[in-house]
Amino acid sequence: MPRFDLVVVVPLYNEEGSLNRLKSEMNKFISDCRLSVYVLFVDDGSGDNSLSIVRRIAGQDSNYGYISLERNMGLSAALKAGIDNADSRWVGYIDSDLQTNPSDFGLLLPYAEDYDLVTGYRQQRNDPLVKRISSRIANSFRRAVLKDGVRDTGCPLKIIKTETARRIPFFSGMHRFIPALVQAQGGVVKEVPVRHFERLEGVSKYNLANRLVKPFIDTLAVLWIKKRTISYKLAQGPENNKEQA
């Protein structure tokens, strides 16, 4: 029996400026949510005071915990570590920069029972022009190749059934393709519009190389995975054999 209904995984790397504000916003969601919620920070080898801050938060509030990677491994590794350590029916994912707001998990939760993945899509992007253009190009290429029908695969606000999340293939860049990888398992995906905010603290970890070049290469790798993934359902299980014996 899972310990929590929802574990929200928060990967972070050098985000000391946003963490206290994130806790304040997360507390609003927790107090309004009808489910039992636990927030799991995953420190991805930060070089600033991020780890000290999340240690203090976890020490003061039982709704929060943390794990830390021994060195910087990237967002996909941090997210996978959080999923592996989630004792819950559902896993939520949100970035620590507060460009999406924890309260918008409330927009996703009504669909969580019926879909394997509920993901936000950012209606009005509040990002620099270069980031918006590169994201639009990458999303268009991904949709054309993978035909996943998802508008905003990279939106950092998601709720996934934990058993589904643990079956997602793990590789560098995996976080960009979660909807397509869930679909490859036979899972069903729902997109819900969410708000998007300007980054107020810290700096973006993205540049043209990791927003365009690598995602294009990774898209072809995910296409290979989708074409070769086998998904099956049992018509009868071992319990049927015992009944017939």
What this model shows, in words?
The chain is of the alpha/beta class and 245 residues long. The chain has a single domain, classed as Spore Coat Polysaccharide Biosynthesis Protein SpsA, Chain A (Alpha-Beta Complex). It contains nine helices and seven strands, in the order E-H-E-H-E-H-E-H-E-H-E-H-H-E-H-H. The chain has helices spanning 19-32, 50-60, 75-84, 105-108, 129-146, 162-165, 178-184, 208-228, 238-244, and strands at residues 4-12, 37-43, 64-68, 88-94, 117-122, 157-161, 189-194. A seven-stranded mixed β-sheet has the order 3-2-1-4-6-5-7, sandwiched between helices. Helix 2 (50-60) links the parallel strand 2 (37-43) and strand 3. Helix 5 runs parallel beside helix 8 (208-228). The longest helix has 21 residues, at 208-228. The two termini are 30 Å apart.
Q: What radius of gyration results from the CA coordinates?
A: 18 Å
C-alpha geometry? globular
Class by alpha and beta content: alpha/beta
Count of discrete structural domains:
1
Helical percent range?
25-40%
Note the run of SSEs as H and E: EHEHEHEHEHEHHEHH
Spatial order of strands in the largest sheet: 3-2-1-4-6-5-7
CATH architecture: Alpha-Beta Complex
* CATH class assignment: Alpha Beta
Count of strand segments? 7
CATH topology: Spore Coat Polysaccharide Biosynthesis Protein SpsA, Chain A
Low-confidence stretches: none
| Spatial gap, N to C terminus | 30 Å
